[in-house]
Task: structure prediction
Amino acid sequence: MPTEEKSSQMTAPDVIVEMLRPALESGQFVAFYQPQYNHTTQRLIGAEALVRWRHPTKGIIAPGLFIQAMEQCGLVTGLDLYVLDKVCSFIRRCLDDNIRMVPISVNLSRRDLSVPGFFDSLEEIRQRYEVPQKYLRLEITESAAGSDTETICNAVSCLHALGYQVAMDDFGSGFSSLSVLKDIDFDIIKLDMKFLSSEREDAPQHRGGTIVAAVVRMISWLGLPLIAEGVECREQADFLQSVGCQNIQGYLYSTPVDEETFVNELKGSHLGELSPVLSLVDHLDPGAFWSEDTLESMLFSHFAGGAALFEYYWNGDLELLRVNPKYLTELGMNLSEEEVLRSNPLAGMDQKEKIAYVKAIEQAIKTKQSVDVDTWRNITSSNCGEDHVAIRTTLRLVGSSRGSFLFYAAIRNVTAEKLYIRQMEDASRRFSAASEHLKIFYWEYTVATHEMRPCARCMRELGMPPLVTNYPDSAIQAGIFPPEIAEQYREWHRQIDAGVPRLEAVLPLTKDRLPYRIRYTTEFDDYGHPVRAYGSATPEPTDSPSFQKTDE
Ligand code: C2E
Ligand code: CA
Ligand code: CA
Result:
């Protein structure tokens, strides 16, 4: 009877505790890892270690069923140190196997923080496995923070002194969030979508969305990175991204997985870093570009011409986030949106173009004004192979964070224009090279203004300015046309002004009276009025019959 009486007085946690203690001692607990991703770049940026009880007969048991009981009976600190030991041993193994690692978050119970010697035990474990602090993050829940701000404050300082980063877990679960954020020096905030449950039924833009947007904006003012957890669907992640939070943990990407599965995840992923919340500049709302039914999004998709949103990182990386349909047609080549998003525009530019583009980006950041830049790019499409196109981009900064900048880019394909200009330049370069070679001087005379534009050689050898006014008198005064032919040359211009189509003669030119064949061809407008005359002077052999040097 007494035994029965005693057993009937036992509480449920007591029963569990009797099972938990031996379970902890015999090592039935394991750490699972839930990966965290940057939703924009799809890079793996960290993971959270979550304890699981591997029961010999009942299988895997989630912490929801035993953590509270362990907290109540004081077993939780032993469990947390046990999990930390497993995590450090795992990180050590990965480092030894040359597997690139991301920081792993370990959960601390509020109980741990007031256990004497807890931080020494924590350090002892880390040092035993020689794990650098940067691979560990410690999570403390907001409710823990709410209970005794001073204890948490001291704990966070202590952990900082030991070189750890500390995350506030479950932000938004209690009522004290704001004051806690103000008082305690956390490094990372974790926002649990669970606590914003209206999010699930409503479309993200509605009530829950507004709360999330407001919370994210508030956190962005602190300049702290934010990880959204409990993210189950694409819409949630897209919405979070649109309001500036790119760091995502949740079933959308992965459930918590065992060590071996996580090792494969590490090996198969691009690794990245936690990114701070994007803060918006000016009145432009980059978030609005992602949700389908905003005015910005509609303008972007249908009226903006070719346009894209991209992120530019301090390390020089650039990533396209969204392009509209006209962006694709502007590039040509029947490119798919996927092909374009996958390609880094900078990768298609040669060094000189890249420098110009990055310079324009930096100018746009500095001036907060739109900046235009023309660049040639190599474009590859699965349909049409390779092409070389010139793109005029108007860059405008719309958002920034500590590590990156969000840009709106309007583009126009200017390949045809550029090719035409290039052809003209080539022709004029060839012409001037030929004229140098043949020692030709040439110039352009404008009838209406009596202005003359000389060739490079005229400028160099005869010291003429790029634009000669009051022609030919100014050239006669400069001695290029000696006095004895001055009147004849003036007469030629009177004839050109009157509409003579061609003129030609061999005349002594310059102070040295060297023989040159001078030719003029006049160009007329649609009404037959003379507009311009093209002059040239080619050296004539001094013994030419058409030239008799006049004695001075
Ligand atoms: P938590 O620290 O907030 O961990 C996140 C919980 O959300 C985990 O539950 C995770 O499995 C779950 N979760 C992740 N993604 C999603 C999702 O998309 N949807 C939903 N509905 N849930 C998601 P889990 O593993 O059952 O852990 C529950 C809690 O137990 C943790 O909440 C944490 O407070 C505590 N816990 C877990 N491991 C430890 C530990 O080693 N020590 C201590 N003291 N507490 C731990
Ligand atoms: Ca946690
Ligand atoms: Ca949490």
Q: What stands out?
A: The pocket of calcium ion (ligand 3) is lined by residues 169-170, 190, 192, 229 (CB under 6 Å). Residues 415-437 form the longest helix (23 residues). The first strand starts at residue 29 and ends at 38. The two ends are 148 Å apart (CA to CA).
